[in-house]
Amino acid sequence: MKSSRSNVFPAEIQQLLQAEYDVMGRLQNILEQETTLLTSGRNIEGLSQLVSQKDLLIEELIMLATERERLISTPDTGPVSADFESFLKQTEDSHTLLSLWQGLLSLTAACQEINQMNGAIIKLNEQQMRQAIHLLRSESPVDLNYDAKGGTTTASQSRLLGQA
Fold it and tell me: What is the arithmetic mean of pLDDT over 114-130?
């Protein structure tokens, strides 16, 4: 039996969801490798390769999501992405599809969390690098001021309030 909202067979949706799940799993693996490289040292070449791999996986995820949206959209109702779970409930073998969808959502949330953590690690590494540069220049951290954009300046670069 076909879904009442489109002419898509559940097997086609399941195949796309499984492909998205597999790619998202590979993305999670790449993000975890990135965490390891970010915390273990300065392997710039390794990080660069991971970024390239992440970009390819993200492109693949976008392509799969676009294909899924195309499959489940109809001229009458348009896109159903906002109501995808309801769409799945109307399909044959909805339990399997809903389970796969929930797994994909969980994996996506895990990837977002790892990515945010990696961003925080990068920011911390950047701050540490900035502090090391200031120490090499014989500038004390006390001499640092923040500009309106949150960047740092040394006391010698800052203007006094009384100066125009």
Answer: 89
Hey, what's the torsion of the CAs at 9, 11, 12, 18, to 10 degrees? 150
Question: Hey, what are 125's tokens?
Answer: 């590494």
Query: How confident is the model over 78-109, as pLDDT tens digits?
Result: 555 557 777 787 777 788 889 999 999 999 99
* Fold classified for 10-154: Methane Monooxygenase Hydroxylase; Chain G, domain 1 (1.20.58)
Burial class of residue 30 (count of CB atoms within 10 Å of its CB; 0-12, 13-18, 19+)? buried
Q: How far apart are CA 1 and CA 8, in angstroms?
A: 10
Domain edges within the chain? 10-154
Q: Which residue has the higher pLDDT, 65 or 5?
A: 65
**CA-CA distance, 82 to 60, in Å (whole number)?**
21
Rounded Cα distance, 136 and 144, in Å: 14
Which is more confidently placed, 126 or 87?
126
CA 13 to chain centre: 23
